[in-house]
Amino acid sequence: SNFFWIWKYHIPPKIKHFLWKACVNGLATKFRLNQSHIEVPLQCDLCNSSDEDSIHLFFDCSNLKDILTASKFCYALEWDQIIRDTFHLDLFQTIDFLRKTLKNEKFVLLCFLWWNFWFARNRKLFANDKFVIETVVKTSLDGHHYWVNRDKLDPDSDEPLTTIEHGCKKKTIY
Description:
Elements: H1 4-8, H2 13-23, H3 30-35, H4 54-60, H5 62-70, H6 76-86, H7 91-101, H8 104-127, H9 133-149, E1 162-166, E2 169-173
Antiparallel strand pairs: 1-2
Helix pairs in contact: 5-9, 8-9
């Protein structure tokens, strides 16, 4: 597979790395951990309805669908149609299909939503933080807004553009 577009795509480096890890099946999902002989319960801790693998997290988890709807990215029915249209593809091919199909800014927003979803999932599992859909949406939208508008910042200004909440901590972005 050709992953070069990930490294050339205009998104933050942490999201590029995250997408690449997902596409090469390198995310530490419960299914992947079990494949590596680390025995953990397979059930998704967010929705409790399916085994947790990358396909489930990126496309099927009901919490992700709620995030996509709350962010006004798309509605569950639209997302389900995307899943039906790409069911025969692997994760990388599906992400690449979305990159080619969606408008650039919408795909970038989806990447922010996915990354913040993963971040919040990890905070829930490893820091026992509460998983709050509204927080994931707000963090994603704020980060996306900052990213697409960063070129419009006044380089001489000392004022921060925005404050983004990550879990319990607040991080001011300049």
